[in-house]
Each structure stands twice: as C-alpha cells, then as structure tokens.
Amino acid sequence: MVERASGCLSAAAAAEIMTRLKHLYPKAKSGLNYTTPFELLVATILSAQCTDERVNKVTAQLFAKADTPEAVLALGREELEYIIRECGLFRSKARYIMEACQMLLAEFEGEVPADFESLMRLPGVGRKTASVILSNAFGIPAMPVDTHVFRVSNRLGLARGKTPREVEEGLKELLPREEWNQAHHLLIRHGRQICKARNPRCQVCPLEDLCISALAQQNE
Ligand code: SF4
After folding, report:
1. Is the distance from the beta carbon of residue 148 to the nearest atom of ligand 1 less than 6 Å?
2. Burial of 139 (0-12, 13-18, 19+ CB in 10 A)
3. pTM of the complete model
4. Mean pLDDT throughout 51-78?
5. Residue 113 bridge partners (DSSP)
6. 137-147 residue pLDDT tens
7. Atom of ligand 1 at shortest distance to CA of 208?
8. What is the pLDDT at residue 35?
9. In the chain, how many H helices and how many E strands?
C-alpha cells in the first residue's frame, strides 16, 4: 500500500524513498560553508534568494574579517553592506545581521541559542532559518522547508500542503525524528538535480514508481 487515505504516501513508502535517496546522494549535506553556529546564522541569512556558491564566496571574505557578533558590529553597517553586496537584498540583510548581532550580545552572551523559540526572536530569522541552525549547527532534529523541500514533498506525496508550515508538519508526522535532518538535505539535493521546478526529470528519477504525481500522470 503506497498511498494513505490523506493522499500522502505510507510510512513504508516514505522509508523506501529515504533509502533510495541515501544511495543516490550519500554525501548530501548543507551547501553553505561555516565553522561555528554564528557563521551558519550569518550564511543562512545571506542565502535568501541567493545561491550557496555566491554566499560561500562572500562569507569567505566576511569571516576572514569578522566571525563573531562583536567583530561584525565593529565592521559597521557600510562595510558590511559593501562585503555582502553581491548577495542580493544586501541592505536589508546587513540590517538583520547587525540587529541579530546586537541581540546575541545583549541577551545571549554573544552565543547563538540552541532552542527554536530563542532563534525565532533573532532579526532575520524565520522558521526555516531557525530549523536550519538547530539541525545543522546543533544536530537537533528539525525540518526546514525551503522551496525544494516544499516542491519535492508535494510532488512525491510525502507531505502535501499549501504552505511550508503544513509540509513541515506532514513530514514530521511521516518520518522518524532521527531522519528529519538528513531528509531535509536529501530532498534539497533531489530537487536541485532531478525533481527540478520547471522540468522534473521523471524519466531518470529512481522514485518514479513511488511518486504520487508520476503515478497520477501515468493514469491520465
Ligand atoms: S518522479 Fe518526477 S515528480 Fe516524482 S519525484 Fe521524481 S522527478 Fe519529481
């Protein structure tokens, strides 16, 4: 039984999908370069509407000059804007980073907090970013839903929803907690390489026999 009454895949089908994705992308991990939770926080804020490659290029320069909240504040807003100018939306990103640094120093002794509610209070940090930091920097199970996870989950039928929050809840319900962090990376890789936004490559997709969208198309 592949499908549940909700129109989503069964836990057994989801497990099989995860097994196949692990074989397909054995090295799936974050595409952002960082060495501390603070660096990941800054890189993740910069990654909105920007490629990981570009963020990594920019953060290599930024972290060589400033890799702590104190050091970033000491740079000043103008210098920060100049360094991150290639990331897009750089003025608002610079403002978020400066304000987040101020809050880290004022309320968290300069450390990035390891709990969801505190992370969500930081300027520029929404549900997805807080989840990325929890899972990647601290190894705490979380399910960040970006555009790839949202699209691939809906197409496959792992979790169906109109909002990232609905998909996040669906994935958390379906997948074992210890799989959440890896599932996030696997679904991103699959979305980038095969289940692309405009032209999903279903002919070469090893999940086609389990994918609710592909099965629906075959039955049309
Ligand atoms: S079969 Fe097609 S729609 Fe389904 S996951 Fe694969 S590429 Fe995406």
Report:
1. no
2. exposed
3. 0.91
4. 97
5. none
6. 999 999 999 99
7. 1
8. 97
9. 13, 0
Cα of 179 vs centre of ligand 1, distance in Å, is: 21
- Top CATH class, 37-111: mainly alpha
The CATH code of the domain at 11-28+143-218 is 1.10.1670.10
**127 close to 149: Cβ distance less than 8 angstroms:** no
CA 218 to centroid of ligand 1, rounded, Å: 12
Band (1; pLDDT cuts 50, 70, 90): very low
For residues 208-216, average pLDDT? 92
Identical fold for domains 11-28+143-218 and 37-111, yes or no, is no
Q: Is the beta carbon of 118 within 6 A of some atom in ligand 1?
A: no
Q: Tell me the C-alpha distance between 144 and 9, whole Å.
A: 20
The pLDDT assigned to 6 comes to 62
What separation in Å is there between the alpha carbon of 130 and the centre of ligand 1? Answer: 28
Q: Which one-letter amino acid corresponds to residue 186?
A: L
Q: Give me the long-range contacts of 193-196 (CB less than 8 A, separation at least 24).
A: 193/25, 195/148, 195/151, 195/152, 195/155, 195/156
Mean pLDDT, residues 198-216: 94
Share of the chain above pLDDT 70, in %: 97
Distance CA 24, CA 78 (A): 44
